[in-house]
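Q: Two folds, back to back.
A: First:
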Amino acid sequence: MTLEERVAELERRLAALEDRPDAPAPRPEPPPPGEGDFWALDGLKTRLSAPRAEQGGVLYTGSVRLPSHERYDWQYGLPTEALLDGEAGDWTDLAESFAALGHPVRLRLLREILGGRRTVAELTALDGLGTTGQAYHHLRQLAAAGWLQSPGRGRYEVPPGRVVPLLVAIAIART
């Protein structure tokens, strides 16, 4: 077998592997920061230059347009000491919120709801979500943790103040 034939065979086999439905999607690598890429961080540092914020702080922000054409602009920031000294509450209080995100079916439900499927009928018709009772169980857990709200009977949505934080949590998990 010639070198060209061997390379062609390897390329064919690689393409077949990449086309497998169970193949994991590659994680995109973030581009290296360039000049001016830290505009949000630079703004945060300017705001934190006051003596009361000498330990720094955390900021997350987003401008999102969902497939359903809803738009959300949101930002939130806290000084580091407010997060560490308990001013923002006991961290153990956050366990329920994180636990609600810790199941593949609940993450899928959130993604589908952000994508525009809002009714229980639309959601339970999806493959892989289990029985209607199981879907309701997951929806109730997400609602109890504040990740969903029900504006009307049989309809669910992610509260506006949780859209960007949810996407930030997803982005953090991908890094």
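A: Second:
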Amino acid sequence: MLCQVGVGTTNPTSELEIETSNTGIPALEINPQTAPVGTADGQLSVIGDKLYMYDLTRAKWLSIESTTLLYGRTGSRTNEVLRLMGNFGNQNSGAFIPMDATIVHISARARGGNSTKQFSLEIRNGAGFVSSTIYNLAASEYINTALNIDINAGEYLIARIGSAGGNVTDLILTVWLKWRQ
């Protein structure tokens, strides 16, 4: 049985429709929670001051918003740190992560050189190593939309070109983060 609910309308065009007028009153209010228990994909909750959706595959609350980090190096390179946008990067720094986050997607592309070149994402805490995940290009590209790598507030995310297998040319790496509860 198809059931539709309309608030402010007797002819809803979706399962739930809230018809509003320009009164200045918000159409919907979700009161903030501190520790909701997620049980199904797509559940929504305001936690603190952010809107989160429960991701059943990753078994955690992730922010609706995502943050994109861009890394790259021009020229023929091997065994080097990729530069974070603005030509910033060395082995002891990188993108500072201000809140607990989860890396959910990455993509990489090279213009030439070794088409299966290895690269890595490193999580560091200042100068201290926390973890590293290694990837390989395939036909000069790499895409992974199912990542589930946690990174904690106060840690740094660094991207590095591997040392084995010759050089890679003009490597660019994009990393998508979602804030985690």
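Q: And?
A: The CA atoms of residues 5 and 16 lie 5 Å apart.
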